[in-house]
Amino acid sequence: MENQNNVTEFVFIGLWGNKKIELLFFSLFLLCYLAVLMGNVIVLLTITCSHLKQQPMYYFLCHLSLMDVSYTSTVVPRLIRDLAAARRNISYNNCMTQLFTAHLLAGVELFILVSMAFDRYVAIVKPLHYMVIMNRQRCNMLIVLAWVVGFWHSIALLLMVLRLPFCGPNQIDHYLCDVKPLLKLVCKDIHVVSILVIANSGMVVLVIFLVLVASYIVILYNLRTHSSAGRKKALSTCGSHITVVVLFFVPCIYTYVLPAGSENKDKDISVFYTVIGPVLNPLIYTLRNTEMKIAMRKVWSKVTHSDLK
Fold first, then answer.
1. Own/partner long-range contacts of 229-233 (Cβ < 8 Å, ≥24 apart)
2. Residue 154 and residue 179 in contact, taking contact as beta carbons nearer than 8 Å
3. What's the pTM value of the predicted model, to 2 decimals?
4. pLDDT at 1
5. In whole angstroms, what is the distance from residue 229 CA to residue 235 CA?
6. What are phi and psi of 12, to 5 degrees?
């Protein structure tokens, strides 16, 4: 059947539809975006300018911070602009670009979180083999794998959406071009496509989350044999990572496991992984991490001394 597409642009309905509330959140989201940029840049500079860059965990944290900045920059600037704009339109091509880019970067971030969990698993369960298993070559391979998996995930979703006919209306009940709100505008039966989207996104995220939970149960079990100081240090780093994983995975599971036609709070819940998570991640990894706090003091004291000279 020929793909009949009469839509050249889409219009976002947005989060609330109340102009006074949206102007208030314009300022709030602007501050959040600036906090994402500042917090993650501080994390990046602290790690790259200190000895921490040699450790696999902080190597992955650098890439996570980079993904947070990139992913948020794909979504939040347009959201901020639309909150103050009279008309929230986006061309069909730009919408497809945002869909592809957002899922690519989110997919990469997801597998970086998996790599970080693997790093903690090896460090605690197989400490004697840690430096052999988590060498820099394997860390680079895991990052490349994250990009490859993220690309195939996003290109599969994009090709699926490009084949669908949009005949109107063109109002997206969301603040970004995502696959589920777009499916509601398709002028044909979406039952099969909805199942494919759940398989591509929802079930994958759910399975990975359950694997991560299982890995941390094993880690906590193995911590029984460690010293009190070792347990405290391990729980600190693992606790930070578990918090970030929950903030990212739980909203994603809620959003993508349910079918496209169901009435839910997708656009409200998505704020957690598009805005709130990237704001909190630098705080979670610095405030609860003694090594990061020490490195940060050393790096920024050097910067201050060089400026004074």
1. 233/290
2. no
3. 0.89
4. 41
5. 10
6. -80, 135
